[in-house]
Amino acid sequence: MKHYATTLLLLGLAASPALLQAQSEFTLVSQQPANPENEPRPVFPLPSERQVKWNETEFYAFFHYGMNTYTNSEWGGGGEAETLFAPTAKPNPRQWLETAQKAGMKGGIAVVKHHDGFCLWPTKTTTHSVLNGGNDYARQTNIPKDFADAARDLDMKYGFYVSPWDLNSAYWGDGTDNYAKKVFLPQCAELAEYGTDQFEMWFDGATGGDHQGYYGGANTYRTIRNATLYYDIPNLRDSIHNVCPDCVMWGVGGEARWIGNEAGWAGETCWSMGSGTSGDENGYEWHPGESDAKATNRGWFWHDGESPLGAERLFQMYLETVGRNATLILNIPPDKSGHLPAATVQRMEELGTLLRNRLGNDLAPSATVTASVTRASGQTRTYDAANVIDGNKDTYWATDDGVTQATLTFAWPEAQTLRYVAMMEYIRLGQRVKGFTIETSTDGKTWTKRGGSMQKTTIGYKRIVPLNGSTSASYGTGFSARYLRITITDAKDSPLLHTIKIY
Asked: How far is the C-alpha of 289 from the C-alpha of 278, rounded, in Å?
């Protein structure tokens, strides 16, 4: 496109005839198109880059370990003698992460300070730490260091849970700002020093009230009214981001939300805005959901006699969280030796086998994929249907702006046994899809809807639909088909899908 403009030269009241003539001439200016790649317009709100990277972690482990492991407690009171922390062997975070990796997880979060205030690293902020533990194993423990080193060596993502609430500290809830300044913020700074590549820092929202705390010997009940002000969250968030640019703050930072339960499921409709299990389609901030769930049948911390849940139940959790536009942080607690029990290790290996066998053989790339509507190409990129099977998360299929209904059809030369469809939106430009259907056919003429009575509304970062409509008995015998059709029935604007996998 060409653009004409005049140039005005204001050089005083007196001007020569030549200058006046020059002022009246038009100058030809070459200008590039405003949108040379014909990129779709965004649908707000949009995620930050750190939120996109966080979503890509998908499935990761929670490791609850600490003083409670040795006191058979879930919430200690803060007055426990430091010597009670006495591992029977050297704690082994590498074994924790190796087990998580075998389960198909991409990272993990280590609890390094729970509400009792006991710190699993040699902190300068309190004497209530491993430095005063009950044996040499305890006093040589540094979970943040060993955990971060192991994660980097295994090419896994990592982060730390550090409780803002501190039942041990005399400063907590004392009516001053001493706790934030002298304890909590310095502790977070110490943890940031163990690695600038952390992907998440986990802050529980507990604010006191119904638990009596030691509080430096006060042995009383305390509470705070406003966690954001008390913990100086704006300063904390900026400080952490300056040091760890890809670190999402969970719980208090407004970057990721609790999905609303600890049972390993998200809503079948799940927006990356709002709160709770389903979010809010009209939410004004990007606030994706994380589901925290226990892989064992007791508490968050290890307890004698506990056993892991079955692999099928854990696979169901995966489908109902990662498969519903949430992430899954699955808790597998180390025992008193500082290692994961053998039964837990075996169960995680079984889960990994299920994930590989059921969601590891993508049939989509062997199909021919066509779209009913395709957006016009830009100067160097296309929006063709084939982009959904090219294995590139940065290319995507799209329709023209305002076109909110379209179909994608997959066709194979021979019949395939189909069980799951996984779809991923290009969320960098917003969550857009509001409705879809999935159908299969043996001849390309007669179509049968699949997915049972499941809500087929949102997609978001990832949606996995069992074609038999069940997450509890999802595998089954599958459906024989030569064709599979996905119809986008409604969207906020042109749908953008970067990956579709069919298993």
From this structure: 9
pLDDT higher than threshold 70 for residue 119:
yes
Residue 29 is predicted with a pLDDT of 52
Regarding whether 344 and 371 lie in a shared domain, the answer is no
The number of C-alpha atoms within 13 Å of 32 and in the hemisphere containing its C-beta is 7
According to DSSP, the residues that pair with 484 across neighbouring strands are: 410, 440
What is the DSSP-derived secondary structure letter of residue 117? -
Same domain membership, residue 393 and residue 324: no
**429 and 345: one domain?**
no
Same domain, 285 and 265: yes
Residue 14 forms part of a structural domain: no
Residue 342 belongs to what domain range?
49-359
Say if CB 197 and CB 149 are below 8 A apart: no
pLDDT at 25: 54
pLDDT in tens, 432-468: 999 999 999 999 999 999 999 999 999 999 999 999 9
Burial of 479 (0-12, 13-18, 19+ CB in 10 A): middle
Mean pLDDT of 2-20: 36
SS3 179: helix
Share of the chain above pLDDT 90, in %: 91
Supply the CATH number for residue 61's domain: 3.20.20.80
> From CA 48, how far away is CA 54, in angstroms rounded?
10
